[in-house]
Amino acid sequence: MTQALSELFELLRIPSVSADPAHNQDMKKAAGWLEAKLRSIGFNVEVVPTPNHPIVYAEKRLSDIAPTVLFYGHYDVQPPDPLVLWHTPPFEPTLRDGKIYARGSSDDKGQIFAHIAAVESLGDQLPVNVKFVIEGEEEVGFGNLVPWLEGNLARLKADVLVVSDSSMLAPGIPAITYALRGIALLEVRLQGSARDLHSGTYGGGAPNPIHAAATMIAKLKSQDGKIQIPGFYDKVRPLSEQERKLYHKLPFDAAEFAAAIGASAMPGEAGYSLLERIWARPSLDVNGIWGGYQGEGSKTVIPAKAGFKLSMRLVPDQDPEAIYALTKAYLEHILPAGYSLEILPHGVGKPVVTELDSAPMQAASRALEKAWGRKPVFNRMGGSVPIVADFQQLMNIPIVMMGFGLDDDNLHSPNEKFDLINFEKAIESSRNFLLEFAKTLR
Ligand SMILES: [Zn+2]
Predict the structure, then answer these.
(1) How far apart are CA 210 and CA 192, in angstroms?
(2) How many domains, in total, are found in the chain?
(3) What is the CA radius of gyration of the chain?
(4) Distance 413 CA to ligand 1 centre (A)
(5) Do 161 and 186 have their domain in common?
(6) 191 lies in which domain range?
(7) How far apart are the CA of 387 and the centre of ligand 1, in A?
(8) pLDDT tens digits for range 196-216
């Protein structure tokens, strides 16, 4: 067993479950383990207390002129339940069939530790300044990291942020995620009469907010999938020809994708492929709709109230606050006469993008190609990763998301694993990246 692997095992043995207060001491222990490890390889380390779990901040400074790489990761893990489904105990890391089985092996201890091991392996050859922010609340979102980032922007200053908390495209096919969608969420509440009414006594003469809701929902998108909110697409950055070509070449089968969710068709915006629609185009979905009687049998009621919930996935350069305002104005505009309308915001998140031809992306591409023997795939993610958006917004630096997990790693499930080869290649990739990135700014 290599030194890096046996050290990863030490870290994996600490049951740092952030959601369970019974593990508060283990959280401290994991933070302390990282502190000692990073100190031993020449970092200045601070374990920052928060109202919940500490943040580990470390920096190794070479010079003022060397470029700086900032790594983000997390040392907390999901609860291991249900324990009976684990083939070997979650906090007794086990190497089996070339895979490291343990809670946190892939998400995210194995991935963040790979970067630590890479820095260590370079020893005196390390060509850049390196900083680590390793939090203990990623799985629970207690929200203590962002205020700390806000208060420490000067010392966090870096030329690139590297995040490894995601997956490769497939075994042996490295991937770099260069864009994430943002989000805007809201709730619409409609009221017609002051109380529920009998449909015999009032039917034909009373407002029905369910119909009003349905009318409004129908006006949100056209038949060909275009979102009808005026100004919605104004700031959407069009897909480049380069991106469209790259997506086209990916081993992605729309029919297989549909079959995997048991759908016979994948409707959406006309003029775009399925992958383009879920990665690079904005979307709008009603997530819930309510009103009236939903129990067994029938009830002759005209409800007083109805409503629905809406989410929109946004792409660069849409501003979620602006989209929220446009949506609100449009909903007010299409509200049928005779109803009162209440709109509640349920949060927003910004989209993220790093230019494909930027220096850090190209350095990452070369680094992965050297380690894996093939060029990485550049992909986007349809979802949002709030902390990455926060980093981009606060620090305004390029972000390289290179994940080393695989889709079958059982994240958040029993028998979480990290392929040993992925751990080893992650170290190699990170090491290559540090060397390549130093060259780009020289
Ligand atoms: Zn994670």
Answers:
(1) 9
(2) 2
(3) 25
(4) 13
(5) no
(6) 182-236+282-349
(7) 11
(8) 999 999 999 999 999 999 999
